[in-house]
Design a protein that fits this description.
Helix content: 10-25%
Strand content: over 45%
Oligomer: single chain
Largest sheet: 5 strands, mixed
Strand order of the largest sheet: 1-2-3-4-9
């Protein structure tokens, strides 16, 4: 029997696809690019909005190696793990269904290599201090990096809307 739009199976697949799309980490918008040398290495500055926390914007910086640098150093397929992050309140804070677990929740992910290495921004909610913590770090399957950066957004004294209830 051919599948038609009214087939329950197809509607279930379409709903699952939509839910998977809405659960994706945030996309970044490049807001700055600074050249650091004559061979074309650059530092990029991206604005990242938390998909579950309205009114907070993080600015993440990372290093982008040029073709000349890749030829010179022989490592074609990855950029350094160096990154920095700064997050601030940029509007009224509205917090959706965030994961209150100590390991946090991935907010943003961007590739730093051809296949495995990624720049990750993870959000952790510090319940005791009523603060959102944003951690920028790299992830690799075999060799983790100790290079990281954090930024905090205190919620104390702020008007915060919790759409799913405060954890």
């Amino acid at each position: 029997m051919p599948l038609t739009p009214s087939t329950p199976h197809l509607r279930t697949l379409a709903f699952a696809g939509l839910m998977a799309f809405t659960a994706l980490p945030a996309a970044a918008e490049t807001v700055g690019k600074v050249g650091v040398d004559w061979i074309g290495n650059d530092i990029y500055i991206d604005a990242v909005t938390d998909p579950k926390v309205g009114g907070v914007t993080c600015h993440v910086t990372y290093f982008d190696r040029s073709v000349i640098d890749r030829l010179k150093k022989g490592n074609w397929f990855e950029d350094p793990s160096n990154s920095a992050i700064s997050c601030q309140q940029t509007g009224p804070i509205a917090i959706g269904d965030i994961d209150p677990d100590r390991s946090g929740e991935e907010v943003f992910k961007s590739g730093l290599s051809l296949i495995w290495k990624s720049l990750i921004v993870t959000r952790i909610y510090d319940r005791k201090n009523d603060t959102l913590i944003y951690l920028a770090h790299s992830r690799e399957p075999t060799e983790g990096s100790a290079k990281m950066s954090i930024s905090t957004v205190p919620l104390y004294g702020q008007t915060v809307t919790w759409t799913s209830g405060k954890p």
